[in-house]
Design a protein that fits this description.
Blueprint: E1 2-13, E2 15-16, E3 28-29, H1 32-53, E4 55-64, H2 72-82, E5 86-96, H3 106-111, E6 116-122, H4 126-132, H5 138-150, E7 156-162, H6 169-181, E8 186-191, H7 199-202, H8 212-228, E9 232-235, E10 238-240, H9 247-253, E11 258-261, E12 266-269, E13 272-276, H10 280-285, H11 288-291, E14 292-294, H12 301-309, E15 315-316, H13 317-323, H14 329-336, E16 345-348, E17 351-354, H15 356-360, H16 362-370
Parallel strand pairs: 1-4, 1-11, 2-3, 4-5, 5-6, 6-7, 7-8
Antiparallel strand pairs: 8-10, 9-10, 12-13, 13-14, 15-17, 16-17
Helix pairs in contact: 1-2, 6-8, 13-14
Bound molecules: iron/sulfur cluster.
Length: 371
């Protein structure tokens, strides 16, 4: 095994208790009948890709779906297979539903090596949660976080959503205070996007979601309220206390390598990008290398620059020029300068970083300065 260049490992678990109204991820309700064979197939895939790339992993992320639905026994078995490839300091995250407390033994997960949890809280307001089709209550979420903390988890992330039906500035602050009072280390604050084909996109509730202007106000409010409570923004939607950034997610923005296992999971290894179709039957039944689909090769200067501009630390254009000599750092700096005065970005030496106001216009601003 090549221990010098660790990669990341992502395991997709496409099962949920029930489908949330806004969700476009590859996941489906329950699926209990698949749990055992799915776990076995994931273990096979860990061995297959472990052999193909002979790499160790310094991060593992169980995403979904709702990975905790698999139950601690199956998750521990997957961890047993994965640990042969994990570095001793690997960050190992599992996503879950905040109503998980009664159904999972967090101590067993912690003992198996999972050291970070991420829960989709979305809101601490009952009416907002019900509009999204979430099945937990704020009380259950608090109990779940406390149960995880008592089991030794000191790195917990909560997701918040902006633009939900019925949401107000006051309710956003209430939700942020709720997270803060639970003593979590990380918050991801996403803007709700109404995806075509989801139940939300066909429901009257869509008219109660924030419009563009309100969404911008909500986003800036969330950034400033999180900052007041000590959460440092390190990416468009991610905030951490005490340096507890998501190491695994950072690797996507830093263009580091990772293997993704499971239907819909993407990989970037040795300059090659590929993914599995959104089809559980293919994942379970066909040879892995026959179900991989190629993506563009990636790794070009645009991808490097765009991904770094998502981060608060921004893009060092001298470094960009060093890696891609066809790019002129000076030209990019000149294009960026007019956006400094209106407060959309900051320039410090050769580094360009977007402010929260700039993040709101991220796509347009990135295009303006790179092209
Ligand atoms: S729990 Fe997450 S993955 Fe599952 S349906 Fe809801 S939003 Fe989608």
């Amino acid at each position: 095994m090549n221990k010098k260049t660790p990669a990341g490992l992502y395991i997709h678990v496409p099962f949920c208790m029930q489908k949330c109204r806004y969700c476009d991820f590859y996941s489906f309700p329950k699926g209990d009948e698949y749990f055992e064979i799915y776990k076995n197939r994931v273990i096979e895939a860990i061995g297959f890709y472990g052999k193909r790339y002979a790499r160790c992993y310094n991060s593992l992320y169980f995403g979904g779906g709702t990975p905790l639905l698999l139950g601690e026994k199956r998750l521990c078995e997957i961890m047993e297979a994965a640990k042969h490839f994990l570095t001793s300091d690997a960050e190992v995250t599992a996503e879950g539903n905040p109503g998980a407390a009664e159904r999972i033994d967090f101590r067993k997960l912690r003992a198996a090596g999972i050291n970070r949890l991420s829960f989709g809280l979305q809101s601490a307001d009952e009416r907002e949660l019900s509009a999204l089709g979430r099945i937990h209550s704020p009380k259950e979420a608090a109990e779940t976080v406390k149960a995880a903390q008592s089991a030794g988890f000191d790195n917990i992330s909560l997701d918040l959503m902006l633009g939900i039906p019925y949401q107000t500035e006051d309710s956003i602050i209430k939700s942020i205070d709720f997270c803060n009072s639970l003593g979590v280390q990380h918050i991801s604050s996403y803007m709700l996007k109404i995806e075509e084909g989801t139940p939300l996109s066909k429901s009257e509730l869509r008219f109660l979601c924030a419009d563009e202007e309100k969404m911008a106000d909500f986003y800036l409010l969330a950034c400033s309220e999180l900052k007041k409570r000590g959460f440092e923004q390190y990416e468009i939607s991610n905030f951490a206390k005490g340096g507890k950034k998501s190491f695994h997610n950072l690797r996507y923005w830093l263009d580091d390598e990772y293997i993704g296992i499971g239907p819909s999971a993407h990989s970037f290894m040795e300059g090659r990008r590929f993914y599995f179709d959104r089809n559980i039957k293919d994942f379970l039944g066909k040879p892995f290398d026959e179900t991989e689909r190629e993506e563009s090769s990636g790794g070009g200067w645009e991808e490097y620059a765009m991904l770094r501009l998502r981060l608060s630390e921004g893009l060092d254009v001298s470094e960009l020029e060093r890696r891609f000599p066809e790019i002129s750092a000076g030209e990019i700096l000149e294009k960026a300068r007019p956006f400094e005065k209106p407060g959309l970005l900051k320039i410090s030496g050769s580094r360009i970083s977007f402010t929260p106001k700039g993040f709101l216009l991220s796509n347009a601003l990135t295009a303006e300065i790179l092209y």
